[in-house]
């Protein structure tokens, strides 16, 4: 079967690999000159199974108002008048209930746990040096209120048998010694010892080469102009320099997926949530974190690569604007300098922004559509790196007609019409 994959971020690359592994003829199309040059390029670097949680949660609307009043706010909303934004925001607010949070969290943890298993299997079979580490994730709390609020998340972790450690200050210092001089700023933490880290961009490049060895073709610098279809199936993909025909099509265009799908009358509630990162050269390894440290107060993650520190965070609702905002850089620089002041050269860091494709319920959209040969793999929000392998393997099995290794319930776009 010839499968055309639209998009070559980490989601598109992993989808191509698993499809090629099953023997399909795979063609990947992307407007960029190479893989993972947009949202996947400089993300936070964490592979966090246990922290797979929807942003839509009880109390979030009130918290959002408080956050926006902070000097280093983790959330900025620029009011938009377009119908996609307003509908998406309304749906997100509707998911801020205890019942919906439990359902969405369970779906996300199910997929993220499976994705971790798939990544481990990949690593056992392929030599992929993406500066990965298997040292867990530490979520830091600056107040007792934050520390006491994690009970509901712990219940879900226990439900899905995700190992965790509730740590006091001494425990936090034990796993991240570089925090020792700043321990007076924290009250404790929650550690997920099985979480991992790694450079998503490097991973995507390496896995693309593996997919090529299996026969996959990657077409770069190709702008997609449209898609032709009947009421039941896709006929071809229209590019600037011609058309591509396939037996099956997978849309993995991140935040840009809804625009293409409107051609087909498919309404996909995915909206771009702008995130930022700093990539900081490490000047003192002993003063840098060993793995990922997440600051709960500012919603900023600091992830250790070999000789670099990736500082990622903040959420900005600003449509498709990709301008770099100095206030966001200052927030990231403040947090990393506050907790790890001697780790790296913050003034010499690289500042980046990308658009996370977010669904209103937090769960990605993976699976079939009303058109018989069209599938979706998008809407992963901040968790594309965490969920990429599991999403791709699940979708490849569905396309091949194989029984998926996990229950796909609640992952396809059909959940929005229930």
From TrEMBL:
InterPro entries for this protein: FAD-dep_OxRdtase (IPR006076), FAD/NAD-bd_sf (IPR036188)
Pfam families in alphabetical order: DAO
Residues of the FAD dependent oxidoreductase domain: 2-397
Keyword terms: Oxidoreductase
Family listed: Belongs to the DadA oxidoreductase family.
PANTHER family: D-AMINO ACID DEHYDROGENASE (PTHR13847:SF280), SARCOSINE DEHYDROGENASE-RELATED (PTHR13847)
Annotated protein name in UniProt: D-amino acid dehydrogenase
């Amino acid at each position: 079967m010839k499968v055309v994959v639209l998009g070559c971020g980490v989601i598109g690359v992993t989808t191509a690999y698993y499809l090629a592994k099953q023997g399909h003829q795979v063609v990947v199309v992307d407007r960029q000159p190479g893989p993972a040059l947009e949202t996947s390029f400089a993300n936070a670097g964490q592979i966090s199974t246990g922290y797979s949680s929807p942003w839509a949660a009880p109390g979030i609307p009130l918290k959002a108002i408080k956050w926006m009043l902070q000097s280093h706010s983790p959330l900025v909303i620029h009011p938009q008048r377009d119908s996609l934004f307003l509908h998406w925001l309304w749906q997100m607010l509707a998911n801020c209930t205890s019942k919906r949070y439990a359902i969405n969290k369970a779906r996300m943890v199910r997929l993220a746990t499976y994705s971790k298993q798939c990544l481990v299997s990949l690593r056992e079979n392929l030599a992929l040096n993406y500066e990965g580490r298997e040292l867990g994730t530490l979520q830091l709390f600056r107040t007792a209120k934050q520390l006491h609020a994690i009970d509901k998340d712990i219940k879900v972790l226990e439900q899905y048998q995700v190992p965790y450690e509730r740590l006091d200050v001494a425990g936090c210092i034990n796993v991240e010694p570089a925090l020792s001089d700043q321990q007076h700023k924290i009250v404790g933490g929650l550690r997920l010892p099985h979480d991992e880290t790694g450079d998503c961009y490097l991973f995507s490049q390496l896995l693309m080469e593996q997919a090529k060895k299996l026969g996959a073709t990657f077409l770069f610098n190709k702008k997609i102009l449209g898609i032709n279809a009947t009421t039941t199936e896709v006929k071809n993909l229209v590019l600037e320099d011609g058309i591509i025909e396939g037996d099956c099509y997978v849309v993995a265009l991140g935040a840009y997926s809804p625009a293409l799908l409107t051609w087909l009358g498919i309404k996909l509630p995915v909206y771009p949530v702008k995130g930022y990162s700093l990539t900081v050269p490490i000047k003192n390894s002993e003063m840098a974190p060993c793995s990922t440290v997440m600051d709960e107060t500012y919603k900023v993650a600091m992830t250790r690569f070999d000789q670099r520190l990736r500082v990622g965070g903040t959420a900005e609702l600003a449509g498709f604007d990709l301008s770099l905002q100095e206030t966001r850089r200052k927030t990231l620089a403040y947090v990393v300098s506050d907790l790890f002041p001697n780790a790296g050269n913050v003034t010499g860091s690289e500042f980046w922004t990308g658009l996370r494709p977010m669904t209103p319920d937090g769960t990605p959209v993976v699976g079939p559509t009303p058109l018989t040969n069209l599938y979706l793999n998008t809407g992963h929000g901040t968790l594309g790196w965490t969920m990429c392998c599991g999403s791709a393997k699940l979708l490849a099995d569905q396309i091949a007609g194989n029984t998926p290794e996990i229950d796909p319930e609640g992952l396809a776009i059909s959940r929005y019409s229930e």
